[in-house]
Design a protein that fits this description.
Blueprint (H helix, E strand, L loop, with lengths): L1 H8 L3 H14 L3 H14 L3 H14 L4 H13 L3 H14 L4 H13 L3 H14 L4 H13 L3 H12 L7 H6 L13 H6 L1
Helix pairs in contact: 1-2, 2-3, 3-4, 4-5, 5-6, 6-7, 7-8, 8-9, 9-10
Length: about 190
């Protein structure tokens, strides 16, 4: 596990996944299953192996949020749309207010042209997150895709009243917090800016 972490920290997720796979041959621990799934996803490896490791992990810890999100992303990236819808639906049954599952279901239902369901999931997210302009925008788009143009326009008009100038520093400087971040010396400069 440690060798995989070292390889990952050095920017070699493929090697990190190889070390995690070797560790899994010896003993399947939750840490190695999680590490292999994450490293393999980042390295763009086979969705089949990622799903196998993720499912083994999820069997012992079904409420683990990062692995739930990874499993869902992998199903979507593998083109397993029906399986992804079923997976996210089960997540929502277990935790009805889980926004990432609602957002993913909205995207998947839009992709397969089930606009009524997509609008329902977008509305749930927008109601949970009334302060979030992106949730409101997604809801407006879903309404428009569902031929409900007046409610969509009303939602978008409401958004035009919000000031987004405070978001500019977040967008401009978000890269410094990603690890490993090469610009750590610039934090003081950003604060002074």
């Amino acid at each position: 596990e440690l060798l995989g972490e070292i390889e990952y920290a050095m920017g070699r997720p493929e090697k990190a996944a190889e070390w995690a796979a070797k560790g899994l041959e010896y003993k399947q621990t939750p840490g190695l299953l999680r590490a292999y799934s994450e490293y393999a996803e980042i390295a763009g490896m086979s969705p089949t192996s990622i799903l196998a490791a993720a499912q083994t992990f999820m069997d012992s810890n079904p409420g683990h949020v990062p692995m739930s999100l990874l499993t869902g992303r992998t199903l979507v990236n593998a083109g397993l749309t029906n399986e992804a819808v079923e997976f996210y639906t089960k997540l929502l049954e277990r935790s009805p207010g889980f926004s990432p599952a609602q957002i993913s279901l909205r995207e998947l239902k839009t992709r397969i042209h089930e606009f009524g369901d997509a609008t329902r999931y977008a509305k749930q997210t927008a109601m949970q997150r009334p302060w979030d302009p992106e949730a409101q925008r997604r809801y407006a788009v879903s309404l428009a895709e569902n031929d409900q143009f007046h409610p969509a326009l009303k939602t978008l008009r409401h958004l035009s009243d919000k000031k987004v100038s405070r978001a500019t520093p977040v967008l401009a400087y978000r890269g410094i917090s990603d690890c490993p971040y090469p610009n750590r010396a610039t934090v003081d400069r950003i604060l002074a800016h």
